[in-house]
Automatic annotation (TrEMBL):
This is Sporulation membrane protein YtaF. Signal peptide: none annotated. Pfam families: Mntp (PF02659). It comes from the Bacteria. InterPro entries: Mntp/YtaF (IPR003810), Spore_YtaF (IPR014205).
Length: 199
């Protein structure tokens, strides 16, 4: 069991949570621990569901074929994520626009404009964030990552990143974090795919 690979995967799939936290901190939107926990649990279930399906596929593969398929899936996901980030940045005129877009997406989940994320809004946010976790979880399971330890690590990092983002930006929004977080996440997925392939 390689905990470094699990940590790398979990950090990359919960990177969006940090951006959400930074955006909420910038807009002074509060998210209590219970709401944060719900977001993390739904993200965890997304990872768990994807990895469970990956394990089912693994049962039909012979030898190291599953690991090759899983690594290829993660690599393609990483390339796609990098392309999407690059394409989005090409469409924006400046850094301020990138920050505003991220903050506007996050603010959409404060549907009652109360400047606080309640439990229902937390559920919606959790489902939004777990979409990537599900797809990437399939590839991660095929490469041999432990399904339960990976899901729990995603839960912990999801809660940590949102809380960290909110605390960091009550006074200052970290522009470079928002600007480059998606690039870093995609590169981590690509590196993980290559690492799992040769390990």
């Amino acid at each position: 069991m390689n905990f470094l690979a699990i940590l790398l995967f979990s950090a990359s799939v919960t990177c969006d949570n940090l951006i959400i936290g930074l955006s909420y901190g910038a807009r002074k939107i509060k998210i209590c621990f219970l709401s944060n926990l719900i977001v993390g649990m739904i993200s965890c279930l997304g990872t768990l569901g994807g990895m469970y399906i990956g394990n089912l596929f693994d049962g039909f593969c012979v030898g190291s074929i599953a690991q090759y398929i899983g690594s290829a899936l993660l690599f393609l996901f990483g390339i796609y994520m990098f392309y999407q980030s690059f394409r989005k940045h090409l469409k924006t005129k400046n850094d301020r626009e990138i920050l505003d877009d991220a903050a506007n997406v996050a603010e959409q989940f404060d549907m009652d404009h109360s400047k606080s994320i309640d439990l229902r809004e937390a559920c919606m946010l959790g489902f939004f964030l777990c979409i990537n976790n599900f797809g990437l979880g399939i590839g991660a399971a095929l490469t041999g990552l432990n399904i339960y330890l990976t899901s729990i690590t995603c839960l912990i990092l999801s809660i940590f990143f949102i809380e960290l983002g909110c605390r960091l930006t009550y006074n200052l929004l970290s522009q470079n974090t928002v600007k480059y977080a998606e690039y870093v996440a995609s590169i981590m997925i690509i590196l993980l795919a290559l690492y799992q392939l040769i390990s």
